[in-house]
Amino acid sequence: MTDVYLNGKFVGEIENPEDFVQKIVDSRRRAELSSNINLRYDKAKDEVRIENMRGRVRRPVIVVKDGRPLLTDRHVQQLEKGEISFTDLVKQGVVEYLDAEEEENSLVAFFESELTRQHTHLEIAPVDMLGLCSSLVPYANHSPGARISMGSKNQKQALGLYAANFAVRMDMDVSVLHHPQVPVVNTIINDLSGYEKHPAGQNIVVAIMSYKGYNMEDAVIINRASIDRGFARSSYYRPAISEELRYPGGLTDEISIPDKDVKGYKSEKDYRMLEDDGIIYPEADVAEGDVIIGKTSPPRFLSLMEEYSLTSNTRRESSFSMKHGEKGVVDFVLITENEEGNKLVQVRMRDQRIPEIGDKFTSRHGQKGVIGLIVPPADMPFSASGVVPDLLFSPHGVPSRMTLSHMIEIVAGKVGGLAARYVDGTPFVGEPEADLRKELLSMGFRENGTETFYDGETGEQYHAKIYVGNMYYLKLRHMVSNKIHSRARGPIQLLTRQPTEGRAKEGGLRLGEMEKDTFVAHGASLLLKERFDSDRTIAPVCESCGTIAIYNEFKDARYCPICGDNVEITDIEISYAFKLILDEFKSLGVYPKLKLKTKY
């Protein structure tokens, strides 16, 4: 007897499992049972597993009988005319949904031409094994799965036209590419998904070659003339939001230009851009520290009742000003109110982003890299026909990654550019590489995509032929102007006296254990004396009992909390964080004793 499990629970036993499975499958195809049921006979364990729970990944395939698909030309014609729908095909048993379990008992063919009597199903289209973003990668069947997965993730980070009404939206941290284009080499999904309504890249001329080592380690080299003509320019938008909050006792914030007697008043220069209502005007050029929305708040702590009458004088400054390292132009000012009826002011900042060294670019095949050098057009290599590439891609990025689709797209883009047409690069069913090569040859170019190139600086011909063609390149949202960070001295945390954390707070750059090792390996270990004193402090220590003593600054007197003031107290340099942990030990009732050795 064979055990039967329904959704993982034992429900009974049967005698001939293969007939049982076939009966249920036939009933499902006749629509006598729900199409949500999937089942499998596991011969090794001699058990039948039936599944009909929610949340399973299932995919549609065409049913095959005796080596012939049940989907006929008549069905296709009816679908095109709208006489039947896809759901009707499922009800008729022409198409069925398989889950991972039932696929184990199935043999699915890619194409109709491959069908044999052993096959049980046929793919609707091989491209449907890929998701939306992965299926936008042309010739994806020529590259490893890991690279296609990277390519699909990169496309989600690309800058383009994210929404057509971006001009009237207040979105957090978004970019819009100025001149997005539709790819020359596309897939069937580009048309089905309406990609031309939200494109996210540009078609450029790419040559695969090294240039003075500036494109080693995945860096790319960009022609400055391309940037001057608008390649990969984008606008970065970010809102500044401030609202008039209400506090207990009838006190409220006030959006206005702060008076000089307000606690924390900055300077007249900081408020110079504000209009009479305390809000900046559109198209104002602002930089770090400039106030965007002027605001004052009531005092934080009200100790006595009579302070209520003095609130007008003791208000504090709480304006919204540009953060460290930010600049831009005021794009749009919106004055409205929130759900509670409080006044709400939103100001959108705009900053033009021109590609610079360190900005991240990628093709659709997971070949990402940052700009390593921007070369003047006169120094760029050029082809015999005078074409200067926009971007140079390192040849070392291809062999170990095996992204053949990247190489095929260059040839396909070249054919599309010369023939003024779009090339179909749909995975498994796109235009074959051999046909593209023939077409390229017929237009007077080498069929292998290479051309004779000349050195831009000396004019000498390169010995090697350079692989060159057109390609769809994307600019990613990781721009160096959002990430660049440095600091000398600056704000410190109240508790540990160590530098604050993070770029937004003007924080320090942490030198950890491993960074320490690199300096030691360089023989620069004395540098650590300078690097490791971000919270250096001088603490008086009692030499008799070893606890941290007390120093009275006004009287210039030192005394020990245990031994009094007639003992020897020595000042030592320690990290403030160490002094803090000693204090925390004391609070637990642990006695930390410092034994001092003489320096001499």
Walk me through the structure.
α8 runs parallel beside α9 (433-442). β25 and β26 form a beta hairpin. The chain is α+β, with helices and mostly antiparallel strands and 600 residues long. The chain contains 13 helices and 36 strands. The protein has four domains: 2-124, no CATH class; 140-233 and 357-475, Dna-directed Rna Polymerase Ii 140kd Polypeptide, Chain: B, Domain 6, CATH 2.40.270.10; 235-353, OB fold (Dihydrolipoamide Acetyltransferase, E2P) (Beta Barrel), CATH 2.40.50; 536-587, DCoH-like. 18% of the residues lie in helices and 26% in strands. The model has no long low-confidence stretch (mean pLDDT 93). The strands form eleven sheets. It has a six-stranded mixed barrel. Strands 5, 6, 7, 8 and 9 form a five-stranded mixed β-sheet that branches. A five-stranded antiparallel β-sheet has the order 10-14-24-23-18, with no helix packed on it. 26% of the residues are buried.
Question: Would you tell me the structural class of the helices and strands?
Answer: alpha+beta
Q: Give start-end ranges of low-pLDDT stretches.
A: none
CATH superfamily of the largest domain: DNA-directed RNA polymerase, subunit 2, domain 6
- Give the strand tally: 36
| Total domain units | 4
Mean pLDDT, as a whole number? 93
The termini sit apart by 90 Å
Question: Whole-number radius of gyration?
Answer: 35 Å
CATH architecture assignment name of the largest domain? Beta Barrel
Order of strands across the biggest sheet? 12-28-13-26-25-32
CATH fold field value of the largest domain = Dna-directed Rna Polymerase Ii 140kd Polypeptide, Chain: B, Domain 6
Question: How helix-rich are the residues, as a percent range?
Answer: 10-25%
Please describe the biggest sheet, giving its number of strands, its sense, and whether it closes into a barrel.
Answer: 6 strands, mixed, barrel
The number of distinct helices, counting runs of at least 4 residues, comes to: 13
Shape: extended
Strand content: 25-35%
Class of the largest domain in CATH?
Answer: Mainly Beta
